[in-house]
Amino acid sequence: MAFFFERGAGMEELMIRTGAQLIWESLVRNHATIVFGYPGGAILPAYDALLDYPIRHVLVRHEQSAAHMADGYARASGRVGVAVATSGPGATNLVTGIATAMLDSSPLVCITGQVGSHVLGSDAFQEIDIVGITIPITKYNRLVTRAEDISAAIDDAFRVATSGRPGPVLIDITKDAQQASIDCGEREPVNPAPPASAPIDADALERALTLIRQAERPVILAGRGVLLSGAYDQLSEFAEQTSTPVAMTLLGIGGFAASHPLNLGMMGMHGEAWVNQAIQQADLLLAFGMRFDDRVTGDPRRYAPLARKIHAELDRTEINKIIPVDVALVGDLAATLEQLLDRVPAIDHSKWLSHIRELKGDASVKDIQHMPDGGHLYAAHVIHDIYRITQGCAIVATDVGQHQMWEAQYYRHETPRSLITSGGLGTMGFGFPAALGAKFARPESEVWAIVGDGGFQMTQAELATAAQERVKVNIAVINNGYLGMVRQWQEFFYRRRYSATPISSPDYSLLARAHGLKGVRIDKRSEVEPAVRYARDVKETVVLDFRVEQEDSVFPMVPAGAALDAMIRRETPSVLAESALDPG
Ligand SMILES: Cc1ncc(C[n+]2csc(CCOP(=O)(O)OP(=O)(O)O)c2C)c(N)n1
Ligand SMILES: [Mg+2]
Q1: What is d(CA 326, CA 320) in angstroms, rounded to the nearest whole number?
Q2: Is 409 a residue of the active site?
Q3: Pairing label, strands 16-18, 181-183
Q4: Any residues with CB less than 8 A from the CB of 391 and at least 6 apart, and which?
């Protein structure tokens, strides 16, 4: 799209571009190939120019979903997700998605149109100060009022979104800046910056090695930083070399294969009982790329009271924020682990590991998939069957609620970037659009959305997007007729007063068919496997409506603010008695 004009005898070339063209050129230069968005008046010039650029646009049905799709795309691929919206309501609809990405360190670039610069500040039609609104939920944002500044602003956006701890960035571009034509030079393609490789403090490294050598009961706490830094191999090697068991945060799942004998499972509020007990009994915690979220620690004053703590983390502001630590290793996790691996001896912790196996023996939640169905269909059955049939290798995006916790307990993730879930903000409505974004990122992969009947209804309009874009994902609606996680809190802490938690649903199979998609209703355990196989076989997006037990709860549960080992357990004996049998 270059325009060349002759200028005088020197034949100097002018490259004239509109600001709108520069937006897309900048995205192409930063290797974006797909954007998720919704048009409107203030972004019209950009949408007009879009037709001339090699970028796929996915028209969402609500801008919140554009941000979630871009987020799912980023989490599945490690690349930057791009969302586009108009000014005013288009921009404000992005806010929940941006906040979701911020709290889970997901790299997004959001581009919004803004009213013309001559009316800024006049409460013009669809004018809103989106830069002001998104200050606390972006790593960086700015208003651009001149076409001359667009290219640099977008290059900065990609650099900031991906450097250090990743996160969302927003660039708000006035309509006149998009319309203006300017003479601009060619800019070089931008290559992603290499990971920050500041050397780890040698003294801290020495102290960490001493603690590691002295420890008798160590536990690794693996968080999302393992995925962000790509430290999978280093983590396995370190765990094996030091025979240290690995507990996962919700967002760390996938960073260490579920089938690895040293993988303990998930920690925290709905973590496995033996994992929380091991943490409380440990004499050394090695926190790798995690931030001691309150869902992970329970009461921080009673957290791992016997343990020295080593915190390896890229973001220095996380050090000593919640849990005071003995040693901080600030820097890229993969690089840190490599330096530790150079020096750490082979250590044998078999006594500690067999102690944890004993804890596991009488404290497991892992069995309910073995229970005779007796006419009941439990969410755990459904999720375990999906896991079994997909062999733990599908990408699963979840929504937020009980089904999210059951997914984390019963779907055993073998590969990195295969669980996509909103951990920090806990955003209902995230799962389905994030699954679509993941499918766009990795079209060769099998993608499932495991969602609740409440959360799915928040963004189910994206079924139309799936149909229009002919993108295939499988949606498992864990339909319990309740806002289940809130109902569970009401059952435990509000004397079963179910205020505003019973929720009705449309007939999802009819809803799917109304969109030209496929839908099936499942009421019995025996119907689960055929339905899952059917979903995998057909080419369209499929909605599986699993009518599960309505008043089932997620166990164990650490009540908010309690110590990590003060867990509420499933009453035994009961239909859902616990046992440690794990069929793998
Ligand atoms: C946008 C948003 N609103 C409210 C909540 C509070 N909340 C957390 S879990 C939950 C219930 C979710 O119900 P459903 O989607 O049916 O999933 P279930 O817990 O039944 O599996 C609610 C309302 C939230 N996390 N996000
Ligand atoms: Mg529900």
Answers
A1: 9
A2: no
A3: antiparallel
A4: 414
426 C-alpha to ligand 1 centroid (Å): 8
CATH superfamily of 366-547: Thiamin diphosphate (ThDP)-binding fold, Pyr/PP domains (3.40.50.970)
Q: Do 412 and 258 contact (CB within 8 A), yes or no?
A: yes
Is residue 331 within 8 A of residue 339, CB to CB? The reply is no
Q: Which of 473, 433, 540 lies closest to 67 in space, CA to CA?
A: 433
Quick check: is 63 catalytic? yes
Question: Roughly how many angstroms between the first and final C-alpha of the chain, as a whole number?
Answer: 56
Q: Give the CATH H-level superfamily of domain 4-183.
A: Thiamin diphosphate (ThDP)-binding fold, Pyr/PP domains (3.40.50.970)
The reply to whether 139 belongs to the active site is no
Q: Of 453, 395, 447, whose CA–CA distance to 428 is shortest?
A: 453
Sequence-separated (6 or more) residues with CB below 8 Å from residue 471: 436, 439, 440, 465, 541
Ligand 1 atom closest to 480 (CA)? 20
CA angle in degrees (0–180, nearest 5) for 307-309-313: 155
Give the mean pLDDT of the chain.
93
Whether 404 sits among the annotated catalytic residues: the reply is no
- Work out the angle between the directed axes of helices 402-410 and 484-493 (0-180°, nearest 10): 100
Q: Where are the domains of the chain?
A: 4-183, 202-361, 366-547
> Which two structure tokens, joined as six digits, stand for 555?
């166990």
441 lines ligand 1 (CB under 6 A): no
**Alpha-carbon dihedral sign for residues 74, 96, 396, 256:** positive
**Lowest-pLDDT choice from 166-170, 254-258, 563-567:** 563-567
Q: Which of 25, 63, 318, 578 is catalytic?
A: 63
Tens of pLDDT, residue by residue over 251-305, are 999 999 999 999 999 999 999 999 999 999 999 999 999 999 999 999 999 999 9
The span from the CA of 264 to the CA of 246, in Å, is 6
Q: How far is CA 339 from the centre of its chain?
A: 28
Residue 71 has what pLDDT?
A: 99
**Nearest C-alpha neighbor of 119 from the set 142, 98, 140, 145:** 145
* CA-closest residue to ligand 1 atom 5: 428
Domains 4-183 and 202-361 share a fold: yes
Query: Per-residue pLDDT for 575 more than 50?
Result: no
Return the structure tokens found at 95.
Answer: 């806010």
Q: Please state which architecture CATH assigns to domain 202-361.
A: 3-Layer(aba) Sandwich (3.40)
452 C-beta closer than 6 A to ligand 1? yes
> Which residue's CA is the nearest one to ligand 1's atom 3?
428
Which of 269, 405, 428, 485 does the annotation list as catalytic?
485
Mean pLDDT of 392-397: 97
**pLDDT tens string 69-113:** 999 999 999 999 999 999 999 999 999 999 999 999 999 999 999
